[in-house]
Design a protein that fits this description.
This protein has 132 residues and is an alpha+beta fold. The chain has two helices and six strands. The longest helix has 15 residues.
Length: 132
């Protein structure tokens, strides 16, 4: 059996090793002592048991608001990063270290994080782990 860490680590590697994603990528939470203008936070819901395990992984891309006073998002940057991350993560099927991975896109939405004057794109992925 694998834990949600296995899925998070796999998604992290896909994004961190990509030449296109040139923003910090964090697992579970952003460090509180830094505030970059753009960053990605990976989180996950509980993982199932079995030979084929399923887990939802959230890829949250944060971008500072273009107009903070009016809480207007930087739509151009959000759209560009969404396209980039979807291209990297879309329907991946891979085998690594004896584990089979299959990633399906589940949903995407833009949300506001008013406390830090940012909007973020939440990309939900359905990750399946095939244990041998």
């Amino acid at each position: 059996m694998k834990t949600q860490d296995t899925a998070i680590n796999y998604i992290y590697t896909l994004l961190a090793d990509s030449d296109g994603v040139q923003v910090p990528v964090y697992k579970y939470t952003k460090p509180t002592n830094i505030t970059p203008d753009e960053f990605v936070v990976l989180t996950a819901l509980p993982i199932s048991a079995g030979v084929m395990q399923k887990v939802i992984v959230n890829v949250n891309y944060y971008c500072v608001d273009k107009d903070k006073a009016n809480a207007l998002p930087d739509i151009e940057t959000l759209e560009c990063r969404n396209l980039l991350m979807m291209t990297i993560l879309q329907e991946v099927t891979d085998v690594e270290d004896g584990i089979g991975y299959h990633i399906d896109f589940e949903s995407q939405e833009i949300l506001r994080e008013s406390e830090i004057n940012m909007h973020y794109s939440n990309i939900r992925l359905n990750v399946k782990l095939f244990n041998s």
